[in-house]
Amino acid sequence: MKLALLLAAALLWSGSALAQHKHGDAKGPNGGPMQDVAGVHAELVATGTTVTVNIFDEATKPISTKGFSGSALIVAGADRETVMLAPSGENALKGEAKKAIAAGAAVTVVVKTAAGKSGQARF
Question: By the 8 A CB rule, do 56 and 28 touch?
Fold first, then answer.
């Protein structure tokens, strides 16, 4: 009985903690979905073969991506491709896929900050 209560309390606690850090359906300044990754806000914009991850702070102000790195795993049906992301412009990480990114593709982004903190999010 104690184990069941402890497990239930842990699930409730972890669910509320996740809800505080996930943007869910929130849209970023460029119209893409936003998620918290490695202590920053990442907005995914995928058009054609280009994957762009725009990086912002809590107030949605652009953060310089100098020293950042990342990758994006794109999965559409049986097709899988990993795209390396490199700093581009003031606050973006960008990479090119071999094929056009299909609508509804699952994209998992890994970001490593200049400070060495890393994290991932699924879009």
Answer: yes
